[in-house]
């Protein structure tokens, strides 16, 4: 799980063009949206593409992103649960 | 007649115009057949979390807008009007290439969202929390002119302070393709741009923003007294006739115009009417050019308006722009005659205030 | 200074018809134009529906009677709709009065650029797409097709574009700069816009359901629609006939988010309120609202909030006609302006198709059947990315 979380950090920074953010600044359990990393609804759509591109997971309803993208850990758990890590 | 007082300017161009002290003293030559804009460090103007998504056109627009707002010390604006011929071309191209390369898969929304032509105007509105009038014009060589026409009407409708801007960016691929289409030629500063006998321009990019005010204040640098666009005039005589009527509207004649900035692009096919017009202009006014230093793009007239403002402020016509041998003694009125592709012509009259 | 501005000519081509009379027939028979994708080349052809114009490019060339290879689908449909509007109005652009063309588009020449972009780097055959890629191209094609046009400009404010073209035309007449203007918008379907909206995940795979609790998103459409608007002086001079009057307009910005509307519909509320104030009409005097109503969860909720904020518990009869035409982006506001004039002329409210369940927290119910009722005034809303919100008010002439 930790390896997946580390991998996700790099992928998120690249996908969202977070040039100012260092991987260690993204904590596994802190929120990605609102406070924390301060991402917004466009980033959520970017993350959906990230899951499709890197993990072959297709999300049809953007509303599902709300629970999946709470934190790095929930994202990693979701990928695991889909058997795609 | 309603005037617009220019209270602040911000200009990003192939020259050092971002430096408020610069006045055509040092000149950057074209990179062969095209120019790139000299961009500032955007971190001064835009927060990093916003910067990460913005293409260059958006960054240039927001930064130049910011500089103009600061200079004018404008606390709020009542309208934001932008003009751009090609809009956010970099993002459009990015989304297009991703679409073509990945056969419509794995596409992300960011570049699509940013590719919309009104992104610059809406980003400025977002940053300023401006809920008022917001317009984006996208008509070739009339894109910037339309913003001024609109602003002058809005002043009559009661608005007080308006941000206008002309914004253009190019990309490496855009330069390659236009070169392939033979739209460029190398012109050096030693070849007078107004005497070209060959086709091709020096493609360029840049952004100039202005804070316009309905009433004159101690910040006012110059006034825009009027603007007119001409679509496909048939002959140079047509243009001259229209010019005389335009000046008459403002109770002026060509002899009152101290400096006439003319939009020679270096492409003989587009410049021919201006070449024919030149003797009539030189007879009564002092002719000058500007595309030899800013290059050619849809909103080059915004650079011309910035130049005219500076000329009035400094009371001096820079030697690098001069066509005529005469030197103006006092500069009260500057006229811009712009042309784009030999199709879109415009007159803009600026005055000392 | 201010003279009144009248609509005197209509022209439109969209999924529901190639001209105004075909469109009226579809509207009055509740017949949608949205269906399977036939003309657009996309890998999602069988996954999504769209409101396509039922003509191929070859068919369009025949109608336009101009086989200039530099033309593209955007220009063809713009030229056809603008010409129809001019013929309908009966104006003569050679009579010495000042005529303008103010158009709007978001996609411009992209539909053709995307077909050839990669080969442009190697082959010379299609380098002319560089000349027709920009938004101004189709506007100048219209101007040249009509002949003797004194003024041209083009607006691009996303999905509110044509409303702003109509507004600018009215203002230029009122300011005495033009006597009459051909105003409107055009957007042909392209892979670029289709995929763009798909990345935003706001496309419904079935027919869109504006204002329904279970709405999933929009269907894209393609269209061109133009109106001739004339100042009363020019109209009286030629003893022409007015179809409707433009009595109110306003442009405001939501300044909330680059793509999403604010939950409370702040920008929309501003636009509607200011348009009403200009018209001098009270809320109760609006007979019908042609909503922006795209069918996306965000727009319809936000627009409902704005509608309630302005009209309280007395919301006029309303519907969105996007389930007929699809969302035609820059053309949407001019399509809906033409539809609004047809409503005024024929005393008909065209239904909000596919609606069954009201949005829970709103309980706003659109007209779901054709309503025959005298109409004197119509409010039409158009909102777009970048927070652009515009409202127009039309009055029976």
Q: Strand count, sense and closure of the main sheet of chain B?
A: 10 strands, mixed
Class of secondary structure makeup of chain B = alpha/beta
| Count of domain modules of chain C | 2
User: Which spans of chain B have pLDDT < 50 for at least 5 consecutive residues?
Assistant: none
Short description:
The complex is a heterotrimer of chains A (85), B (353) and C (397). Chain A has 85 residues and is an all-alpha fold. Chain A has four helices and no strands.
Q: Could you characterize the architecture of this molecule?
A:
The complex is a heterotrimer of chains A (85), B (353) and C (397). With 85 residues, chain A is an all-alpha fold. Chain A has one domain (2-81): ACP-like (Non-ribosomal Peptide Synthetase Peptidyl Carrier Protein, Chain A, Orthogonal Bundle). Helix content of chain A is 51%, strand content 0%. Chain A has helices spanning 2-15, 41-55, 65-68, 72-81. In chain A, helix 1 (2-15) crosses helix 4 (72-81). Chain A is globular, with a radius of gyration of 12 Å. The mean pLDDT of chain A is 90. Chain B is an alpha/beta fold and 353 residues long. Chain B has two domains: 4-213, 3-Layer(aba) Sandwich (Peroxisomal Thiolase, Chain A, domain 1); 222-351, Thiolase/Chalcone synthase (Peroxisomal Thiolase, Chain A, domain 1). Chain B contains eleven helices and ten strands. Chain B has helices at residues 48-51, 56-72, 89-101, 109-115, 119-128, 143-156, 172-180, 236-249, 268-284, 291-294, 300-314; strands at residues 4-12, 79-83, 133-137, 161-168, 206-213, 222-231, 259-262, 287-289, 333-340, 344-351. The model of chain B has no long low-confidence stretch (mean pLDDT 96). Chain C is globular and about 60 Å long. In chain C, strand 14 and strand 15 (388-396) form a beta hairpin. In chain C, helix 3 crosses helix 6, helix 7 crosses helix 13 (332-346) and helix 10 packs across helix 11 (297-311). The longest helix of chain C has 17 residues, at 73-89. Chain C is built from 13 helices and 15 strands. Chains in contact: A-B, A-C, B-C. The interface between A and C is small, with 8 and 7 residues.
SSE layout and pairings?
The complex is a heterotrimer of chains A (85), B (353) and C (397).
Chain A: H1 2-15, H2 41-55, H3 65-68, H4 72-81
Helix pairs in contact in A: 1-4
Chain B: E1 4-12, H1 48-51, H2 56-72, E2 79-83, H3 89-101, H4 109-115, H5 119-128, E3 133-137, H6 143-156, E4 161-168, H7 172-180, E5 206-213, E6 222-231, H8 236-249, E7 259-262, H9 268-284, E8 287-289, H10 291-294, H11 300-314, E9 333-340, E10 344-351
Parallel strand pairs in B: 2-3, 2-4, 7-8, 7-9
Antiparallel strand pairs in B: 1-5, 1-6, 4-5, 6-10, 9-10
Helix pairs in contact in B: 2-5, 3-4, 8-9
Chain C: E1 5-13, H1 20-28, E2 35-36, E3 49-51, H2 57-64, H3 73-89, E4 99-104, H4 110-116, H5 129-132, H6 136-146, E5 151-155, H7 161-174, E6 180-187, H8 191-199, E7 220-221, E8 223-231, H9 232-237, E9 244-253, H10 266-279, E10 288-290, H11 297-311, E11 317-319, H12 322-325, H13 332-346, E12 348-349, E13 371-372, E14 377-383, E15 388-396
Parallel strand pairs in C: 3-7, 4-5, 4-6, 10-11, 10-14
Antiparallel strand pairs in C: 1-8, 1-9, 2-3, 6-8, 9-15, 12-13, 14-15
């Amino acid at each position: 799980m930790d390896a997946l979380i580390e991998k996700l950090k790099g992928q998120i920074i690249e996908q969202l063009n977070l040039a100012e953010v260092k991987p260690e600044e993204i904590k596994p359990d802190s929120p990605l949206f609102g406070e924390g990393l301060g991402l917004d609804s466009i980033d959520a759509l970017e993350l959906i593409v990230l899951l499709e591109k890197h993990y072959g997971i297709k999300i049809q309803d953007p509303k599902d992103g709300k629970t999946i993208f709470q934190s790095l850990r929930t994202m990693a758990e979701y990928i695991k649960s889909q058997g795609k890590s | 007649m309603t005037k617009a007082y220019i209270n602040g300017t911000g200009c990003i161009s192939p020259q050092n115009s971002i430096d408020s002290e610069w006045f055509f003293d040092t000149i950057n030559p074209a990179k062969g057949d095209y120019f790139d804009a000299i961009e500032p460090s955007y971190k001064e103007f835009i927060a990093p979390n916003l910067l990460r998504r913005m293409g260059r056109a958006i960054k240039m627009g927001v930064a130049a807008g910011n500089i103009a707002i600061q200079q004018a010390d404008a606390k709020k604006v009542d309208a934001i009007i932008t003009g751009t011929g090609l809009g956010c071309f970099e993002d459009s191209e990015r989304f297009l290439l991703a679409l073509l390369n990945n056969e419509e898969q794995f596409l992300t929304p960011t570049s699509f969202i940013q590719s919309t032509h009104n992104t610059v105007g809406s980003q400025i509105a977002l940053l300023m929390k401006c809920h008022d009038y917001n317009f984006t014009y996208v008509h070739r060589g009339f894109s910037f002119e339309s913003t001024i026409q609109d602003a002058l009407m809005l002043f009559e409708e009661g608005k007080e302070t308006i941000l206008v801007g002309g914004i253009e960016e190019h990309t490496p691929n855009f330069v390659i393709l236009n070169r392939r289409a033979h739209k460029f030629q190398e012109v050096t500063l030693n070849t007078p741009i107004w005497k070209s006998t060959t086709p091709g321009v020096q493609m360029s990019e840049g952004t100039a923003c202005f804070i316009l005010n309905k009433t004159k204040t101690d910040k006012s640098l110059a006034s825009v007294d009027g603007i007119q666009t001409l679509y496909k005039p048939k002959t140079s005589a047509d243009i001259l006739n229209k010019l005389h009527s335009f000046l008459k509207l403002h109770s002026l004649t060509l002899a009152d115009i101290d400096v006439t900035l003319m939009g020679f692009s270096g492409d003989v096919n587009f410049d021919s009417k201006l070449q024919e017009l030149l003797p009539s202009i030189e007879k009564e006014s002092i002719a000058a050019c500007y595309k030899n230093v800013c290059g050619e793009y849809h909103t080059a007239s915004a650079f011309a308006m910035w130049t005219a403002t500076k000329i009035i402020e400094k009371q001096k016509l820079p030697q690098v722009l001069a066509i005529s041998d005469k030197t103006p003694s006092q500069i009260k009125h500057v006229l811009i005659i712009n042309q784009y592709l030999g199709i879109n012509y415009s007159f803009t009259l600026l005055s000392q205030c | 200074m201010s003279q009144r501005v009248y609509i005197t000519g209509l022209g439109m081509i969209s999924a529901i018809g190639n001209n105004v009379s075909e469109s009226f027939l579809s509207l009055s028979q509740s017949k949608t134009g949205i269906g399977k994708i036939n003309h657009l080349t996309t890998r999602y052809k069988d996954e999504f529906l769209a409101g396509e114009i039922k003509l191929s490019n070859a068919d369009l060339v025949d109608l336009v009677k101009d086989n200039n290879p530099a033309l593209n689908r955007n220009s063809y449909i713009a030229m056809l709709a603008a010409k129809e509007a001019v013929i309908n109005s009966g104006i003569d652009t050679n009579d010495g009065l000042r005529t303008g063309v103010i158009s709007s588009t978001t996609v411009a020449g992209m539909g053709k650029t995307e077909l050839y972009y990669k080969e442009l780097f190697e082959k010379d055959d299609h380098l002319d797409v560089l000349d027709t890629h920009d938004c101004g191209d189709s506007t100048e094609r219209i101007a040249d097709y009509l002949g003797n046009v004194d003024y041209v400009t083009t607006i691009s404010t996303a999905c509110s574009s044509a409303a702003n073209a109509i507004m600018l035309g009215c203002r230029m007449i009122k300011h005495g700069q033009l006597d009459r203007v051909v105003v409107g918008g055009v957007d042909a379907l392209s892979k670029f816009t289709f995929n763009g909206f798909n990345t935003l995940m706001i496309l419904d795979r079935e027919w869109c359901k504006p204002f329904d609790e279970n709405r999933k998103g929009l269907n894209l459409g393609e269209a061109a629609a133009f109106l001739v608007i004339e100042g009363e002086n020019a109209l009286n001079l030629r003893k022409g006939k007015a179809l409707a009057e433009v009595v109110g307009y306003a442009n405001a910005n939501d300044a909330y988010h680059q793509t999403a509307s604010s939950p409370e519909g702040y920008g929309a509320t501003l636009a509607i309120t200011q348009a009403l104030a200009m018209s001098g009409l009270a809320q109760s005097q609006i007979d019908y609202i042609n909503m922006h109503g795209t069918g996306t969860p965000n727009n319809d909720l936000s627009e409902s909030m704005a509608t309630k904020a302005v009209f309280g518990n007395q919301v006029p009869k309303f519907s969105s006609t996007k389930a007929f035409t699809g969302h035609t982006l820059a053309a949407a506001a001019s399509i809906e302006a033409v539809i609004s004039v047809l409503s005024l002329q024929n005393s008909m409210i065209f239904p909000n198709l596919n609606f069954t369940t009201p949005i829970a927290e709103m309980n706003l119910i659109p007209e779901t059947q054709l309503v025959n009722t005298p109409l004197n005034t119509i409010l039409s809303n158009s909102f777009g990315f970048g927070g652009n919100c515009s409202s127009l008010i039309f009055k029976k002439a």
